[in-house]
From TrEMBL:
GO terms for cellular component: outer membrane-bounded periplasmic space. GO terms for molecular function: N-acetylmuramoyl-L-alanine amidase activity. Its EC number is 3.5.1.28. It comes from the Bacteria. Keywords: Hydrolase. One of its GO terms (biological process) is peptidoglycan catabolic process. It catalyses: Hydrolyzes the link between N-acetylmuramoyl residues and L-amino acid residues in certain cell-wall glycopeptides. This is N-acetylmuramoyl-L-alanine amidase. Coiled coil: none annotated. Residues 93-256 form the MurNAc-LAA domain. Pfam families: Amidase_3, DUF7940.
Length: 266
């Protein structure tokens, strides 16, 4: 018994001496963060496969806390070391959500455009991260910054896209479109097709592309600064809204693949 106690005491003394070394302290802290990042990745993997219908059952008083927890998880997952590139300047994709936390955008019952497109942005960001694509967003979780903040993220990006949902007085209005400058016509058409195929919707405009001069809102700040605006469907159309809520992860994955292909070709 005394021998066992002696060995334990010796191990404890050795541990105390080792802990005084900076290399051991740094290693322990690094291991701690590795565990946190691994937990965040596993948590997000589970969270992403939970159907939206079940997420909607979360009590309203808990939704803000869940959103914060998910946001922290996304931030931690971003800390995962990415492969090094042979360039000091790394290209990145900018994905932003339309409107903001202060401006809900179009509304249909309990559904607000700003909240729906934030979910879509988060889903696209998830697939970009999984593919090792560098990206920037205007927020994580439920955070949705204003237009000025989103525009600032365009500079330096290889492509910048903001997500919106259309609305119309007619509940029959439907379809997907991407507003962009003529130079981005093909990319706009590819993005619209990816979304329309996922939602089983139709393409508006020129095979999904609309020049900002032809849009109902005319000249748009995000477009004028080099970005594209993807209208994911009509929030005022009950069928399209239902499709969005049940299949937005599928559409987000398709959009991410368009970005990935674009990055490979450019």
């Amino acid at each position: 018994m005394g021998a066992i106690y002696g060995r334990e005491r010796l191990l404890l003394e050795n541990w105390k001496k080792a802990w005084k070394l900076k290399s051991v302290q740094v290693g322990a802290i690094s291991a701690f963060f590795d565990v946190l990042i691994l937990f965040a990745e596993q948590f997000l993997g589970v969270w992403n496969i939970i159907p939206q219908d079940l997420k909607d059952l979360i009590p309203e008083q808990w939704q803000e806390y869940v959103g914060i927890f998910v946001g922290v998880g996304i931030v931690l997952a971003r800390l995962k070391k990415q492969p090094e590139l042979h360039s000091d300047i790394q290209p990145f994709v900018t994905v932003t959500a339309g409107h903001s936390n202060k401006d809900p955008g179009a509304v249909n019952g309990k559904f607000k455009e700003a909240e729906l497109v934030s979910q879509f942005r988060n889903a696209v960001a998830y697939y970009l991260r999984e593919a090792g694509i560098q990206y920037k967003t205007d927020g994580v979780g439920t955070l949705n910054q204003d237009l000025n903040s989103a525009i600032k993220l365009i500079k330096g990006s290889s492509v910048a896209v903001e997500f919106h949902m259309n609305a119309a007085a007619s509940k029959q209005a439907n379809g997907v479109e991407t507003i962009a400058l003529p130079k981005d016509k093909k990319l706009a058409q590819a993005l619209s097709k990816a979304v329309a195929d996922a939602f089983g919707s139709r393409l508006r405009g020129d095979k999904g592309w609309i020049d900002q001069s032809q849009s109902a809102r005319g000249k748009l700040g995000f477009i004028s600064n080099g970005g594209l605006i993807v209208e994911l469907g009509f929030i005022s159309n009950e069928a399209e809204l239902a499709q969005f809520n049940t299949r937005y992860w599928v559409a987000a994955k398709a959009v991410a693949h368009v970005f990935i292909d674009y990055e490979k070709r450019n």
